[in-house]
Automatic annotation (TrEMBL), chains A, B:
Matches recorded under SUPFAM superfamilies: Glyoxalase/Bleomycin resistance protein/Dihydroxybiphenyl dioxygenase, Xylose isomerase-like
Function: Catalyzes the conversion of 3-dehydroshikimate to protocatechuate (3,4-dihydroxybenzoate), a common intermediate of quinate and shikimate degradation pathways.
Recorded metabolic or biological pathway in which this protein acts: Aromatic compound metabolism; 3,4-dihydroxybenzoate biosynthesis
UniProt protein name: 3-dehydroshikimate dehydratase
Residues holding Mg(2+): H452, H521, E597
Keywords linked to the UniProt accession: Dioxygenase, Lyase, Metal-binding, Oxidoreductase
Boundaries of every VOC domain copy: 281-403, 449-601
Reaction catalysed by this enzyme: 3-dehydroshikimate = 3,4-dihydroxybenzoate + H2O
Cofactors: a divalent metal cation
Species, as recorded: Streptomyces minutiscleroticus
GO MF term list: 3-dehydroshikimate dehydratase activity; dioxygenase activity; metal ion binding
Length: 627, 627
């Protein structure tokens, strides 16, 4: 179906909004009146600009407080409407949105409303304009779609139909089944918005918290099914009032919006993009580090070994169990988005890319491309194995990998094994502090795999990031949680595949200003975090110190085996528990924007230790700035 | 009464919170458990720190989900409580907050709740601890203060009392009169918080939107009266969960908090600080301008004349009618707070100070000082007339003035009249383009006075700014309005005196990042804005261009006299109307952080043209960056 977006959903000047909508692949726009009023472009110029951009002007909105008023006021309203119809003529817009009145002067008289809407439509027809009457959820007398439709039906004018808005219908909890009783040709327009489920005043909810379909908790796809079955064939148009989107760059928001409509059409059975190919595991995490020394030392202390080196580029493969880390010391390799500014010691060390083990890398890329993920070049260098990759909203590159699988190119072929005798000398010239020499049992506490990746998202793109990971990668989102750090609340939401082989924790800081120093971490799974922590310390690693008060509280909350709590206290191991089991974890110091976590996860435990995050955040803050 | 604050109300580490609370004059603190857990200080060290800072530890909180549970669970809860009593002993805290249970395991059995609370109190007594039981507004079975009290009464233990929380009581709309039925000595603690009136889920409301008393819409003073009449003599303690305060600097927030308690005690008749002395007008606005040329040219084009010069400093007095502008070209004069960074052309031109005409300058200063406004030195230089002044939360200096009034020192005595023949040559060396020469009637469109001052506030201190202007200056707050600019929503709230002689519009941008370039403007009142605009243009001034679409909309909305709208369109005059009359206004270009507005206000019009602000903001943006 055709897609459209209301200009109020995007930030910037009208010109910027139109450009962003066009680039994201929208077919049309709703022109929001305030955007026109504030624009230096005359309506004819807006019309020409839209034509140049391949956009139709699908709706002009809104007209308010028109109907069911005393005759004198209605005469003034008609006069006002004529002015607007003239603007629409100049604009090339043929449908106007009329919202049900919220005026204290409106009377509860459907017959009068119908009569006046009939008169309005009659006048509109002279200008070649159709009137789409919509029930606002907070309309004074008319606030349900079936009520609005009954007035439209009574008015009985060919230039009068109804406009349906998913938010207004679903926010009130109205059953949308009755939509199918409306003749499709009388549904003049369909506006779509989702919203997180919040118990709050519906007007405030609508004006500040709407989001794109799939980002909230309303069943927009179900509603769309009813509308299509009613016979509606007009555009699917997004109308989203959102305080964050108003501030965000229009370009990414428009792409996010278009993606949401593609996923929505898929969910409603109206489109069949390539099916999602859910990743089964993490093939690798790729770090960039202008200065390899600090992070190499950290990897070595964590028990990683440098096993291979890229044939042509300064990229080392560090491995332990199934955990693979690529360390790229070349010049800036990021090919998408702006890298956040480096912070702290360790220079620009950051997580730049994630290799996702995929059952069908090409299929995963087709899915991603169909949902507007920026596709990266398949080869980094002529001799490299082709590798499908896209960029996530935060700029992280996602590679779809088939690691050492028959018949598929493997990224590992670009690497040459480092001979055993050379293994100990890293790119940084510092010899490995081999684990065997340290006197600790080589297997106890070994890292098995990457448990999860934790990525701080750009503040304005948290909703986008969540929808991206769910729709493009086919991951499931877990509950969103709030976490306090000393200077504000973080929000965190994890996305995972079914068996937990891929877990990505997305989080966002308290305010947009912190975007520059977005911290990331890699959590490494071990069967024995105490042994892992001891190994790490024996190898010279330093764990994040945890305040003693935290352990006094643990003692109050849980019963531990003799000595267990003392061990945690000694090492800085944190503890959490849910219905499914326990979670024990500790943290390394931060290098650049990156740190590591060692985690021991009982099979049934679903979380990420969010309970402990405030303590971790405060401890990291104390480490940086003093307690 | 003694004042206290919960550490969760302030940002930072526990150390930072305690320091801020002490500096702001609090007598004690509630230690929020998470702040202790995340602190590297042992409880004994926290106790010592508090003692050094002159703070008592008035409450430790919270214990949750204790009561009305099966015996096995209660045994575990008692064990947990003992650990906490031990921590409290180390901390020197003698009262613990127990919140009514939200656990799904809690049963609806008041007798069981009372029995278990009795047992808890018995154990607490052994540690010298008192238990204060509080009804959470969302408690599972106990969610009203009278219910909590009835259980406390039934439990009948000397170490068990109740804790009252203004938010939990008022948010549910419970009548607080019944508080007087509780014996004062059984009210172990009183927590105070206000909140803006919002129809939303009470848990979310409580966790994110609480504010200090006087900043929201709850009758906290009324509640306090009941509590005091019941005989409560404990501390007044603030417990505020607020997403913005969590991010703000702890120092100013603590001062804001302490100020709110002083105003609250005054409102409840418990304290008598010096009475507010409401300013009657604006004596002057003082601009700082490292480069005087651009702003001098603007003042001259607006019809101002340089009439006097400071005896010893590079400060000129520009005057027109009752509007007086001081132009200070000396080195940085700000003596309070950090000046925002300069932006755009015109260098650091900014509004640095406001002279408020005061019936009793010394009394106004005493009021301000009693409410913790930072008092500035009374003399700027040895030869200056003494002038009482304080700093507003945004750093603007407020001078309490008696301009040329008998028996009081006047700031004007520091200035020497500029002889008529010298008048035309400003400090910048550019001769005045005198109005008389321009061929325009000298009186029509003349500026009469300053209509209002519009000050963008630091993002984190909007609530503080509003309370400051109301309580310190005795101004009244008008409704808060949302205004859209191309990149987000602004909030704006004006404070005025009764006759509109002083009007200050406080606003705040969409996100904290924009703090650096906080724009200000001075609105100048004229009886004829069209003549004023023409005068200004004839004198070489440039008005902000307003899009034609805006006037098409005006034509649709209002009926104008023939030619009227065309004149507005030609000049860029904006128009608004409310029940009381019309408002016509136009804007100059921006110099540094400052621009001027010319306004013609019908006597009955109460607003500031907020309806037109989106158009103005977009036009200003277009002027800076292109449309």
């Amino acid at each position: 179906m055709r897609t459209s977006i209301a200009t109020v959903s995007l930030s910037g000047t009208l010109t910027e909004k139109l450009t962003a909508a066009s680039r994201a692949g929208f077919d049309g726009v709703e022109i929001f009146e305030n955007d026109l009023l504030a624009s230096p472009l005359a309506p004819e110029e807006v019309r020409a600009r839209c034509a140049d951009l391949g956009l139709s002007v699908d709706l002009y909105q809104p007209m308010r407080d028109i109907e069911a008023v005393p005759a004198g006021e209605f005469a003034r309203n008609l006069r006002r409407a004529e002015h607007k119809f003239e603007v629409m003529r100049r604009l090339g817009a043929d449908t106007v949105l009329v919202c049900s009145s919220v005026s204290p002067h409106a009377v509860d008289d459907d017959a009068l409303a119908a009569e006046q809407l009939h008169a309005l439509a009659e006048r509109a027809q002279d200008f070649g304009v159709r009137v789409a009457y919509e029930a606002l959820a907070w309309g004074r007398h008319v606030n349900t779609y079936d009520h609005a439709w009954s007035i439209v039906r009574a008015a009985d004018h060919p230039a009068l139909g109804t406009c349906l808005d998913s938010f207004h219908i679903l926010a009130r909890g109205c059953g949308p089944e009755g939509i199918e009783d409306i003749p499709g040709e009388k549904i003049f327009f369909l506006q779509l918005a989702d919203a997180p489920l919040m118990a709050m005043d519906v007007l405030q909810w609508s004006r500040h918290y709407r989001c794109f379909p799939g980002q909230g908790g309303l069943d927009v796809a179900g509603l769309l099914g009813h509308v299509v079955r009613a016979g509606y064939r007009g555009p699917l148009s997004l109308e989203v009032f959102n305080d964050v989107f108003r501030q965000a760059e229009a370009g990414p928001t428009a792409v996010d919006a278009q993606r949401s409509l593609r996923v929505l059409q898929e969910a409603a059975g109206l489109a069949e993009p390539p099916a999602p190919v859910v990743p089964t595991g993490v093939a690798f995490a790729e770090l960039v580090a202008p200065d390899a020394q600090p992070v190499s030392a950290l990897l070595r202390a964590l028990g990683f070994t440098r096993t291979a080196r890229h044939r042509s580029k300064p990229v080392d493969l560090w491995q332990q169990g199934e955990a693979r880390v690529l360390l790229n010391t070349g010049p800036a390799v990021r090919r998408w988005g702006r890298p956040p500014r480096p912070s702290g010691s360790g220079g620009g060390t950051a997580l730049a890319a994630i290799g996702l083990e995929s059952p069908d890398p090409a299929g995963a890329a087709r899915r991603a491309e169909s949902l507007l993920a920026p596709v990266l070049p398949r080869r980094r260098a002529p001799e490299d194995a082709p590798l499908d990759a896209v960029a996530a909203p935060d700029g992280t590159e996602l590679f779809f990998c088939a690691t050492d699988r028959d018949g598929l190119p493997s990224w590992t072929r670009d690497f040459e094994a480092v001979p055993r005798h050379a293994e100990r000398a890293g790119t940084d010239g510092v010899p490995d502090a081999g684990v065997a020499e340290s006197g600790v049992d080589a297997d106890a506490g070994a890292v098995r795999r990457i448990d999860h990746l934790a990525l701080t998202q750009p503040w304005h793109q948290f909703d986008e990031a969540s929808l991206f990971h769910r729709s493009v990668l086919g991951l499931r989102a877990q509950e969103s949680v709030d976490v306090a750090d000393p200077y504000g609340l973080w929000r965190s939401r994890a996305v995972t595949n079914a068996d937990g082989g891929v877990r990505i924790a997305l989080s966002v800081g308290p305010a947009p200003g912190d975007d520059g120093a977005r911290v990331q971490h890699i959590a490494l799974a071990t069967d024995d975090v105490v042994a892992a922590a001891r190994r790490f310390r024996a190898a010279g690693g330093r764990l994040l110190p945890v305040p003693g008060n935290y352990y006094d509280d643990l003692a109050a909350r849980y019963a531990f085996a003799p000595g267990e709590l003392e061990t945690y206290r000694e090492l800085g191991v944190l503890y959490d528990r849910d219905e499914g089991g326990a979670f024990r974890h500790c943290y390394t110091e931060t290098v650049g924007r990156l740190f590591f976590e060692l985690v021991q996860r009982d099979a049934g435990y679903r979380g990420y230790g969010a309970q402990n995050a405030p303590v971790r955040l405060a401890a990291q803050h104390a480490q940086r700035y003093g307690g």
